[in-house]
Every structure is written in structure tokens, then in C-alpha cells.
């Protein structure tokens, strides 16, 4: 059977991610391969470490890529930090908090959760109270939970964790580069992310950074695998329970030893490096501001169309907004009309929010004025087709008004 070459339909991805990749990233990913110990390759790896230190706002030497989607970064962090029987505290404010719980449990942790209604976040007091009660080894918390569109303020969590001698891990897949994140200033010990949201790349690489304190915990269980082990290399009685996600070995691969582990996913590394280069050229603060401006324009436009905005707006991520699906509209049918008639994708939702809200993203390469205005114009038509009364041009007009003041 013959098959046709890949030729995907033209789409404007305005959901909660993935989004259209920056063409620069796609170009970088079409470059030819080199060997994994070629000086060019090891130089790219070292440059990538430096670039992600800037993106995470950290001085951590241990800043590398985990090969795999964002979930791979989460698994690597948790399986490398947690020994079976360790207590882990997970504050859950959306779907991805449940994912941290699930992964920590599979690592053999005794997991304790606290929950808050989707659409709200925790106060530092609630966190400190739970930390004092549970006395966990690790506090694992999502920064921006795409499922609810909210970002949990983390700036006081590091100090709480220091006071109680707890390791702080956070997942910034949805929030990084679109919202302020300051690893060292906030006292975060381990952070992981992905490329497919505000970093403007495809999914498949998970940047991760570890504080010296976290590296100490992780390398205490270092066990070099047979076949590459030399005399005197450590063999732990309680090794990290995953070989692929063993950050102690991954650090030896990225570090001066260049001790072989996996074969670095060269094409993904080219892509991840380009994502970070673009951000560093723009300036991380400027990138966050770009997301704030276009994200707010989208919110103003959605309000102009009569949508009710979901969740506590003080904590909304800059890059994604949830809107209540108007009465009488079949959410999935309307989204599918947007895709087939206009080539625009917006997001559905999960769990308690499924069928109740849509999620509209303005992130990475798509955090732009033209994408915001086009999406609002199309949403107006979709509402009309569903029989909702809307002011003609109400969405685009409100966004234009906002831009007139903001730009
Ligand atoms: C906050 C958050 N964490 C983790 C993930 C999982 O990412 P991936 O699908 O790249 O593994 C996502 C994906 O949307 C996310 O939004």
C-alpha cells in the first residue's frame, strides 16, 4: 500500500497547547544529525544548559533536558527524588495535580493531598498548615494548571519548604515563559517544563533544573549501570526505580564525565535549544509581557462577545483563558465547526469542567494580535450559528480598544 507524504491541514492552534511551532524551531529541527559525542553536539548540549538557566531564572548547574514530553520531566523529577515509603504532599487545584499524585504514588510514595475547588488556588497559610501536619519529604505542586487556567502563586512556597526541610518540586509546563517564574528567588528545588506551550515548540523535550540541595538528594542514590560502570563507581542498595528517568545518571551524561546513558534525542535538542534562543533574544520579561498583553486582549474580546470568564481572575495565567459555554450551544459541535470551517482549534476541558468551559490560548508563537482578532471574529460567527445574540464586531472591537491603549 502506498501512502502520501505528510501534509497536515493548515491550522491555527488557539487551545491550551500544543500551539503552532515557531518556524525558526521547525527550521532548527530539520538540521542534519551529528554523533552524540561530536564536539558540535556536546557544545550544543552545554549551550542548551545555559539557555535554560536563563529561562528558569536560575544559577543551577544541573539544568538539562529529559527526552520525552512534559510528563517525562515530571516522572524523572519524582522518581529520582522519591524513595518508596517517602511522604509526598500534593496540593490539587486541577487535573495536573491529580497527575502528580498518580505519578508519586507509582513511585511508591505515601501521598497526601489537599484539594481546592477548580477555579481557585491555595494560600501560603493553607500550604504551611498541610506541610506541618504531613511533614513530607517533597511538596509537589503544579505552577499553572492548564485544566483550570489558573497559576498557583509560588513565591512564598520555597521559604515554607526551607523552614520545614522539604524539597519543593513544581511543574511549569503550561506557565513557563508566559508568566513570571523565578526559580532561585522563589526557592524552588526542582522544576520541569515542556516546549509545546509558551516556548513555541513541539512536545517531546522536557527542560528540567535541580538545585544543589535536590542534586544532593538525587545523587545520594546514584547507581551506575553495569556495562559502563568503572571500579569505584557507586552501586546503590536503593537505586532510583527507573533507569531511563534516573536523573543521577542523566546528570553524568550531561556533565563533564559525559558518561553514556541514552542517546540524546538530537532533533529535539535542536528544537529545545532554538525555543530557548528565541526567548532569550526577546528577553524573558518581554515574553511574559507579550503573553500578558495578548492574553488580556483575548479576555476583553471574549467579554465583548458576552462570554463569562471562568475562575478567580486574580490568578489566571496570561496565556490561557476559560469561558463558560453559552446555554444552547453544543460545545463539542461548535469546536468542530471552528476546526472544519475556519481551521481554528480551541480547547475543551476535563473532569468537572467538561462540557462547561472552552479554553482559549494565546501562547508562544501564537501570542499575537492577528491570531487574537481572527479567533474572536470566528467565535462570533460560531455563536451566531448557534443562535446566540451577539453585538456585531463586539469581540474584535473590544480587543481593538484594549490594544489601542496597550500597544
Ligand atoms: C500543567 C501540565 N502538566 C503536564 C502536562 C503533560 O504534558 P505532556 O502531554 O507534554 O506530557 C500538561 C499538558 O498539557 C500540562 O498542561
Write up this protein.
It is globular, with a radius of gyration of 22 Å. The strands form four sheets. A seven-stranded mixed sheet has the order 2-10-9-8-5-3-4, with helices on both faces. Strands 1-12 form a two-stranded parallel sheet. Strands 6-7 form a two-stranded antiparallel sheet. With 407 residues, the chain is an alpha/beta fold. The chain has two domains: 12-280, 3-Layer(aba) Sandwich (Aspartate Aminotransferase, domain 2), CATH 3.40.640; 284-406, Aspartate Aminotransferase, domain 1 (Alpha-Beta Complex), CATH 3.90.1150.10. It has 14 helices and 13 strands.
Short description:
This protein is α/β, with parallel strands linked by helices.
Please tell me what the overall shape is: globular
Mean pLDDT: 97
Named CATH topology of the largest domain: Aspartate Aminotransferase, domain 2
Task: Compute the number of helices.
Answer: 14
Bound molecules: pyridoxal-5'-phosphate
Write the element-wise H/E pattern from the N-terminal end onward: EHHEHEHEHEEEHEHEEHHHHEHEEHH
So, the CATH homologous superfamily of the largest domain?
Answer: Type I PLP-dependent aspartate aminotransferase-like (Major domain)
**Domain module tally:** 2
Overall strand count: 13
Amino acid at each position: 500500500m502506498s501512502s502520501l507524504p505528510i501534509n497536515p491541514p493548515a491550522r491555527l492552534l488557539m487551545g491550551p497547547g500544543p500551539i503552532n511551532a515557531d518556524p525558526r524551531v521547525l527550521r532548527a529541527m530539520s538540521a542534519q544529525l551529528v554523533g552524540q559525542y561530536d564536539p558540535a553536539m556536546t557544545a550544543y548540549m552545554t549551550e542548551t544548559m545555559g539557555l535554560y538557566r536563563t529561562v528558569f531564572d536560575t544559577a543551577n548547574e544541573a539544568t538539562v533536558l529529559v527526552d520525552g514530553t512534559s510528563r517525562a520531566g515530571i516522572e524523572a523529577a519524582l522518581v529520582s527524588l522519591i524513595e518508596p515509603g517517602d511522604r509526598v504532599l500534593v496540593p490539587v487545584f486541577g487535573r495536573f495535580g491529580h497527575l502528580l499524585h498518580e505519578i508519586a504514588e507509582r513511585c511508591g510514595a505515601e501521598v497526601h493531598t489537599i484539594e481546592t475547588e477548580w477555579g481557585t488556588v491555595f494560600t501560603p497559610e493553607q500550604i504551611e498548615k498541610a506541610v506541618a501536619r504531613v511533614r513530607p519529604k517533597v511538596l509537589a505542586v503544579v505552577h499553572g494548571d492548564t485544566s483550570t487556567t489558573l497559576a498557583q502563586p509560588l513565591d512564598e512556597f520555597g521559604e515554607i519548604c526551607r523552614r520545614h526541610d522539604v524539597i519543593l518540586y513544581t511543574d511549569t509546563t503550561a506557565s513557563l515563559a508566559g508568566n513570571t517564574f523565578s526559580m532561585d528567588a522563589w526557592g524552588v528545588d526542582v522544576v520541569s517544563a515542556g516546549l509545546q506551550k509558551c516556548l513555541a515548540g513541539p512536545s517531546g523535550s522536557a527542560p528540567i533544573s535541580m538545585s544543589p540541595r535536590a542534586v544532593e538528594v538525587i545523587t545520594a542514590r546514584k547507581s551506575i549501570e553495569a556495562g559502563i560502570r568503572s571500579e569505584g563507581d557507586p552501586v546503590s542498595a536503593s537505586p532510583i526505580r527507573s533507569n531511563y528517568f534516573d536523573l543521577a545518571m542523566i546528570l553524568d551524561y550531561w556533565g563533564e564525565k559525559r558518561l553514556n546513558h541514552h542517546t540524546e534525542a538530537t532533533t529535539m535538542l535542536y528544537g529545545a535549544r532554538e525555543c530557548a534562543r528565541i526567548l532569550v533574544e526577546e528577553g524573558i520579561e518581554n515574553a511574559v509581557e507579550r503573553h500578558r498583553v495578548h492574553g488580556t486582549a483575548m479576555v476583553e474580546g471574549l467579554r465583548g462577545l458576552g462570554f463569562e470568564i471562568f475562575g478567580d481572575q486574580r490568578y489566571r495565567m496570561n496565556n490561557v483563558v476559560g469561558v463558560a459555554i453559552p446555554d444552547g450551544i453544543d460545545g463539542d459541535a461548535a469546536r468542530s465547526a471552528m476546526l472544519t470551517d475556519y481551521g481554528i482549534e480551541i480547547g475543551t476541558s476535563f473532569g468537572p469542567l467538561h462540557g462547561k468551559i472552552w479554553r482559549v490560548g494565546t501562547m508562544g508563537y501564537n501570542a499575537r494580535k492577528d491570531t487574537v482578532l481572527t479567533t474572536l471574529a470566528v467565535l462570533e460567527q460560531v455563536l451566531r450559528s448557534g443562535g446566540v445574540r451577539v453585538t456585531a464586531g463586539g469581540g474584535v472591537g473590544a480587543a481593538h480598544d484594549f490594544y489601542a491603549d496597550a500597544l
